[in-house]
Design goal:
With 116 residues, the protein is mostly helical. It is 83% helix and 0% strand. Helix 2 runs antiparallel to helix 3. It is elongated.
Length: 116
């Protein structure tokens, strides 16, 4: 299978689990820890795969690099969300929405690159 599609699949699974957790947080329901771990594992695998694509060259296409930059910004929100578990506070809705939006935009760019 093509590396681009593998990357897209990994990030799509990460996005699905993230969306489920985000919806639960908006309803002020805690997400199971295993779901957060699963989300993190797929995100990390997807980002390593994306970095591998960048290392191999993208033929001048900037989309993977922009996507990686968006994921780095989304990671800041992810750390804020994870820290709320340890402080036992509900995260701010803008953090949930910002984290998800940045990641969704990054995944959209990966999809355009992989399928285009």
């Amino acid at each position: 299978m093509d590396q681009n599609l593998i990357t897209l699949a990994l990030l799509a699974v990460a996005g699905t689990t993230g969306a489920i957790m985000g919806l639960r947080l908006f309803q002020q329901k805690p997400s199971p820890v295993f779901m957060a771990v699963l989300h993190a594992v797929f995100v990390i695998a997807g980002l390593f795969s994306l970095a591998n694509i960048l290392a191999g060259g993208t033929g001048g296409n900037p989309l993977p690099a922009i996507a990686l930059s968006l994921y780095v910004l989304a990671a800041v929100g992810g750390f804020m969300l994870m820290s709320s578990r340890f402080t036992e506070t509900w995260p701010k809705r803008w953090v949930i929405a910002g984290h998800g939006s940045l990641a969704a935009l990054g995944t959209t760019l990966v999809a355009i690159y992989a399928l285009g």
